[in-house]
Every structure is written in structure tokens, then in C-alpha cells.
Amino acid sequence: MVTLFQFLPQKVRHLSSLILLCLSFWMIFTPIADAQNCFEKGIEQTQKGHYHQAYLSFSEAIEQGKQIKAAYSNRCLVSLHLAQYQQAYQDCTLALQDKPRQPAVYINRGLALYHLGRSLDAIADYTTAIQLNPNAYSAYYNRGLAYTALSQPITAISDYDQAVQKINNLAPDQLSTIYNDRGLAYLNLGNFTTAMLNFNQAIQLDHHNALALYNRGCACSKHKNYQQAIADFSEVLKHNPHHGEAYINRAIIHQHLGYFQAAFNDYRSGVQYLPNQDEQILNIMQKLRKTLAQFETTIG
Predict the structure, then answer these.
(1) What pLDDT sits at residue 295?
(2) Where does the signal peptide begin and end (predicted)?
(3) Residue 141 lies inside a defined structural domain of this protein
């Protein structure tokens, strides 16, 4: 008789790793040519994704020409990309002191506050941004993430609804992200049907949305739709072969279905990318080895 071992808990991504940044650049002419050149270079580097170099350029512009206030808001933006959230918060605050009616800067400061664990303060900044620009869909979306972090899924869904209504249809990848996070909020409420509709919509808009595929896989597994869950986790691994959680969750299903060799292989792959769970996974793998050996002995 084959014994079924205790599964690892399903891991559902409660927050999207993609946060909609509010990009904004201002050109301000100044008699200090060197500062202006640094400022323009920073913009070009930011647009190319060279964030460290852009940070240095904006810092030089600030040092040489204090009146280039837009350099603070743009350095805030690149600091967000560099995960330097305290610096981003400080720069956005300086930019708002000079020019307070800037919804984009409130959004970016809200992002910094969110990553610093100050969700309530982030919500206050997003709310100010919405008051200044009622069509700022990224403010609604990011405020929804903050409410999700505070375990307020109903309020989060209301903001996600607003973001869906106000977003430009020319941004399907961002719309896909919003549907994914709205699906997670519904899943947290136990509304599996609506959560699945949102995950399906997210994947339809962006077939490469690995987060939506992963979350749908977790939802399907929870509701015992194992074949669809396996298909979703397998698709995630096509896009990201280093996704340890996808390997582990697929291994859990294989183990539950009695596919012990497949489960063992997935655990072995997953443990490489989840170092914090080495001991737990290795214990399961050791038990699986014994089960496989017993199974082979029984067949022999």
C-alpha cells in the first residue's frame, strides 16, 4: 500500500511583482548648460533602462543646478527601479515641496511608501493623486495593491474595477496585470468562479503573464482541477525554468495523483530555487525515494 505524504502548502502570489510606475519627464531650460546636459542624459538613460547611470546623471544635475527641480522627481523614478525606496521617498517629497500639484509624483512616492511597508501612507498619496487626476488608473491600481496588503480585498477590488475602467485599451499587458491582481482579491474572498474569470482574462490579454498562469494553477489545484493546474504550472516553467514554486506545486499534484517519479523529479528541480525550504523538501524527497523503492520491489 502506498502512503500519501503530507503536502507542502500551496503558495499563491498575493501581490503582483509588477507595479505600474507612473513615468514622467519634464524638460526645464536653465542657463547652467552642464546641469541641463546631465538632466537630458539622465532622461535618455532612463528610457534605455540604464537606471544606475541615470541616477548618477540626475544626481549630477541636482548638484550643479539646484533649480532643476524635475531632476528630483526623475531621480525618484529611477530609485524605484533600483529598489532604493527611502531615497525615492525623499526625492519625491522634495519635488512636491517645490510643485505640490503633481499626481505622477504622488503616485511614485506612494510606491516608495508601499515598499517601505507604509501602506496607509501610500494610500493617502494615491488618493491625493486621484483627486488631482481622477483618470489616473495607475493610482487606483496601486491603491488596490496597498489595500490588498492591508487584507482589505473588497476595497481593493473596488479600486481594481476603477483601474480597469480608466486604463487605455492600448496597454493590454498592464490591463492583464490588473485582472490578475483582481483575481487574487476574489480568491482571497473565496470567490473561486470570479477569480478564475479574472485569471482567464489576464491570460487572454497576455499569454506570457506567468503570474496569472501560476495563480490560476494554484486555484485549479485547490479546487482539484489537477490536469489544468499541471498544464498551467508547466506553462509557467516554459517561461521561467527557475520558478521553484511552480516545480513544487506541480510536484504536490503529481504526488497526490500517485506519479511519484514525476513528483520526485519536480521536487529535485524546485529545491534548487527555493533554498529556504531545502530541509522540508529534502525530507519529502527522502520519503519518496523509499516509496519508489518499495513500489519497484513490489512490482519485481
Answers:
(1) 53
(2) 1-35
(3) no
Q: Is there a single domain that holds both residue 2 and residue 59?
A: no
Single out the residue of 182, 167, 177 nearest to residue 205, CA to CA.
177
Contacts for 210-214 with beta carbons within 8 Å, 24 or more apart?
A: 210/235, 210/236, 210/239, 210/240, 210/243, 211/13, 211/16, 211/17, 211/18, 211/177, 211/180, 212/176, 212/179, 212/180, 212/183, 213/239, 214/13, 214/243, 214/245, 214/246
Predicted local distance difference test score (pLDDT) of residue 25? 47
Cβ–Cβ under 8 Å, residues 86 and 115: no
Q: Which of 144, 170, 166 is nearest to 156 (CA)?
A: 144
Inside any domain, residue 159: no
Domain residues for the domain of 283 are 1-8+170-300
Q: Are 8 and 266 in contact (CB under 8 A)?
A: no
- Which ranges constitute the DSSP H helices of the chain? 33-47, 51-64, 70-81, 85-98, 103-115, 119-132, 137-149, 153-166, 172-188, 192-205, 210-222, 226-239, 244-257, 260-271, 278-299
pLDDT at residue number 67 = 60
> CA-CA distances (angstroms) from residue 50 to 42, 54, 89, 285?
9, 6, 20, 43
Domain match, 3 and 33 both: no
pLDDT at 34: 82
221-237: buried (b, 16+ CB within 10 Å) or exposed (e) per residue?
beeebbeebbbbbebbb
The CATH number assigned to the domain holding 224 equals 1.25.40.10
pLDDT averaged per 10 residues in sequence order, the chain, 300 residues: 31 39 46 79 93 94 78 94 97 93 95 97 98 97 97 98 90 94 96 96 96 96 95 96 93 93 90 74 74 56
pLDDT, residue 92, reads 96
Please count the structural domains in the chain: 2
